[in-house]
User: Fold these one by one.
Assistant:
Number 1:
Amino acid sequence: MNANVKRAEGMAAYDPKTAPFAPFTPLIPAFLDGGDTPRDYLERCIEAIDAREAQVMAFVNLNLDSARAAADAAGRRYKQGRPASPIDGMPVGVKDIIETEDLPTEHGSKLFAGYQPQWDAACVFWLRRAGAVIIGKTVTTEFAARWPGPTRNPWDLERTPGGSSSGSAAGVASGMFPMGLGTQVRGSVLRPGAYCGITAIKPSFGCINLEGINPISRGVNHLGTLAASLEDAWLSLHYISRNAGGEATHESLPGKTEMPAPEKPARLIRLETPGWKNTPDDVRALLEGLLEDLKDEGIEIIDRDSDKDVDALETMFDDIVEISDTIRDWESRFPVLAYLDRGPELLSEDVHARKEIMENMTADDYAAARQRASAMRDAYAGLAAKGEAKGIACITLTASGPATPGMPTGDVSFLDPSSIIGAPALSLPLLAAEGLPLGVQMLGFHYQDARLIAQGSWLRDFVLAR
């Protein structure tokens, strides 16, 4: 029986060293020599869907016939020794605010029930060209905001999977597909990744073309990946960036689509963020213990108590939640106010509660918030110099604890910083609390995503070898 099924029935608690995931990329040699096939891998994913979907509710729509045909085509390319890309044949779940020409895109809202685009979003178009297998559309919160969908956390069905990329995270954690697409304005990629015990990457802002994705808060929105392994997440994301291109005036991520070698950072900047004050002592102790182990490994840890520039940035973060609220609400006035005009009875209490706020905002409010966000970005960018040539990254928690009971999307206070400053960020499922996953967040510097992945790879290997 799938180990995640056992967990839902009250079996072993989450352990990052034994988490029962089946990543895609390690199987590529077997696809090439005939020891395994993309179709067989897909069928194992479908078995997990049959076993778990009724409980977890990760999907809005499935297209298994099309997925099987795509997997068979990938199998033929592997047999010929000519895979289309490093992710040829990879099953993918697509968050349901991302347009697909063959499946409805309903944005988690009754207002868009049955809405069928005629085109794929740019990211989906290039995934198909890569040979990826689009298995279905995954649940999102309403308009990727706060009103939850039906998805449950696979590790504990009474707890939230996190939002807004809830179906993508829960589907990966359940073994239904190895990589899911998510989007993040505040914490909607990293947080569900942490709550569901999988790897999640939010790249540098602007490095991926968002055409065909719900435009709410376009000036902060990031496309990200949630996956069964760091390799699955990175190769997918980098391939999309290199081929779909970046947003207007932004470049793709540099380099080849390959996994960088692990890199031990010489220094780590420990960030508190506004989330630290909301973190219970037992959870704090888990991060502190990890940092002590890293010190013993020869890594220098600097923080606000030892560095005035870090302290200045932490002080700037004090009102980042307010800044993020202002930017998100202004940038989503359209289309949200248009949605309220068109079908108010089809929208949640959360959307209605934002109406007065949005109508009373001014362009000056937005400009002031943007100015403060720019100052944060500049201050954060300055921290890169503290690494010199030896390598540096930032480290903190992804959330103040494991997934909470009930279905709230979760706290944003650890996550607003990387979103507002546009830095690449990574959540690794390296800790556990209450028998549930607890994510460790690493932040890098703009367009140095590959180096962050290399450092994250080292940290993962170090923790799992302890």
Note: The mean pLDDT is 95.
Number 2:
Amino acid sequence: MATNNKPKLVEIIPPKDVWQGPASAPVSLVEFGDYESEACAKAHEVVKKLLNAYGKQLRFNFRHFPLTQIHQRSHKAAEAAVGAAQEGKFWEMHDKLFHNRRNLGSVSLKEYAREVGITDKNFLSKLVDSVYGWTVRNDLLEGLEKGVRDVPAFFINNELFTGKPTFDGLNKAIDEAIRTGKRKTAVKQRA
């Protein structure tokens, strides 16, 4: 009996598939952000309040848009979040990264992974080997394609939000989306 020596293709769960809130929510909120950005850290707190306020009417997705020219550790931090998603710990890592945004070196990322319950013994080597690098890059490229140039950038039901990402600003836009019944439109998948 011959053995199959082909390398096993590991499918990576991309950030676009990791949401908070029910799929049936009338409003989707997508943020393109960077874990080292102070503005994104402030927006992170706003999003937590919005999710609390809207309950089942809102679902949230975070996409990676590391500004590596000014935030050298943001790409690896994003890779760590993708790695955590593989074990269903994306949101725990997401919170931990924002909370520790000034300390995102590889050794710290490994420690945060342990703290949020990641059991993969190869977590650090996967970061070093950039196993999730292309996944983060795909988010960045999609953001650029959608017109994102700075972070945080929000999309409400696939429409770019152009106001200030404050609680009041996003709250008004979400209320408007609910009021007008503008349902989220399906994003076309590329082959």
Note: Confidence is low (pLDDT under 50) at residues 184-191.
Number 3:
Amino acid sequence: MPDPIHFYFRGKKHQVSDAAPTRTLLQYLREDLHCSGTKEGCAEGDCGACTVVIGELKQDQLQMTSVNACLQFLPTLDGKAIFTVEDLNANGHLHPVQQAMVACHGSQCGFCTPGFVMSLWDLYLREVDTDSGCPKTSLERKQIDIALSGNLCRCTGYRPIIDAAQQMCALPRQQFDREALRQALRGMQRTQALSYQLRDQRFDAPHTLAALLSLRAAKPAAVLLAGATDVGLWVTKQLRDLGEIIYLGEVAELQQVALQDGMLSIGATVPLEDAYQAAANYYPELNDLWQRFASLPIRHIGTLGGNVANGSPIGDSMPWLIVLGAQIVLSSLAEQRSMPLEDFYLGYQKKDLRPDEVLTAVQLPLPAARQIFRTYKLAKRFDQDISAVCAAFSAQLTGDRLSNVRMAFGGMAATPKRATMAEACLENQVWDEANLVKAMAALAQDYAPLSDMRASSDYRMKTAQNLLRRFWLETRPDAPLPKTAVDVFARSTITADGVQA
């Protein structure tokens, strides 16, 4: 008899045994539980109307995160807690988040309001109603922008919602009983892996790497599922039947971040938010890209390993990982092998991955002496948009001469790809404008970009060349662009067709 799914909901354990493994939390909330506060807008994680907050135990510590319900398959919520907008005023009184939204007129048509409220509640739990007992009485605008980055509103212009985020800190606190939730979730943790099935659809969630590799060897055609930010769209948009699914999210070995042999090792299922935070500790130049990589709810569930394994030519992680010399670890029952990430991509959606293998870790070298590094993203919106061009540059600068030059671009070819001809123009050369111009011209030999809805071929080439120039302006040895000027440039430059760097 297959295991039922169980999760904590409305103060008690809730059990599901008759839903398809690919039924989303949003569908289940609205259609089966009739909790209509959570809205369906895009069904692809872009609009935020379906935002809920998930509670789970990580190494026996409670973690609360905002997620998009439209992308969460029900079995991935096994052993976790689900909170929707209806939970905030269950005692008959408005939560401070809701009070602030009312006072600041943060809702007009109201369709997006539940998603905003849940994103703000997630922020409230992290910054105001905290375990530390040291609540913030005000929030920085950047904190608010990041928290709300996954929510779209077509009525308010966002100002009153931002006002509400600032005002909610000043209202009397409404405490959340974290300890009671911890105890409830502790009693729901499985000792055996979940194996759930409905008719011909099966969902297995192994707990150990050994069990995962055994399942993969036995089921090489099964779909590997991590955060579902890509796979979820196969179901909600393409209406695909996934058949057998192997879920990686419960494998403890894949959730680790550690220093190993001079490398930062990031497990394949470490969420993007945590992965970027770990990498930015060593490479603070990643901070801007980190904020612009999707929305916070997407970064809470998407994984760095999934982003790399998907191998999209417009994925934002691959260019900077490639120029920093990242390695990936591929594991099977037979062996474990490592390779440079740049060798993993063989062609469009083609990878050097055997049927019985799983990508288990991404390993990032630590910064080298005299290393200069930058990564840039061009998109039509500053936040939450797919790149037209994503660029990364790294080199060692000794005096005025470059060495170990590496540059890579996304959006310029069928795979994330290094610009080897441009690199050759700069290797062991003086870092001056004359050599820069040669390298910019050489990019036309490295790439023949396509035109699509995001940008034309000419635009991509011109902006790729200009991003290389920007790298020079910021790092040239004689007169680098001041940091304040860099910040202003990054946030204010709008090109002729409305694309922002």
Note: The chain has four domains: 96-173, 194-247, 252-365, 371-492.
Number 4:
Amino acid sequence: MKEKAQISYKNEAVFITALRKGEESAYAYLMDSYHHKLCLYAYSFCKDKNLAADMVQNVMLRLWKKRTSLKIDLSLRSYLYRSVYNEFLDQYKHRKFILNLEKEYMTAVNTLIEDDESNLHRLIQHVKKEIDNLHPRCKEIFLLSKYEGLTNLEIADYLNLSVKTVENQMTRAYAQLRDKVGEKLQSILFLLFEMYKKA
């Protein structure tokens, strides 16, 4: 049954029409397709898994309640991501930590989610491949920083290296990856390593 629903809902107009009619299979498909990804996106802002899940749930329920007003030509994916972002702003605009968020970084992440999903997947796979192509020591230091979350000083102590050596290797890694991937590197790295932590 699930496979049949997925095939029929690949056409977004058909999917939105089913949502407007209140078909439960359409809501189930919506959750299967977007819930986990939206939770990752929400987590990138609030850094709290429970809050992220709550925000996504609010967005999903709100969409379901006003489903009859959805436009057939709506880009549902973009709509959902924008809704989660707006939900975050609504909940946290009066909290002081929002002042510490990097506007440029948030903009970069928002730019990424406007990409076609298959293209985003290709970009992530491309970055993973380029990380694997780094020099072994350079790759080790880079992953200790990005995957384990260690500081340069902690990496230096762990590997018995100078902090300067670690800094040089990190600079080399970023330069090589940016040369291969381009300006979207930082946002892709964030999504990639948040996915690792979620898995």
Note: Residues 2-101 form a domain with the Rna Polymerase Sigma Factor; Chain: A fold (CATH 1.10.1740.10).
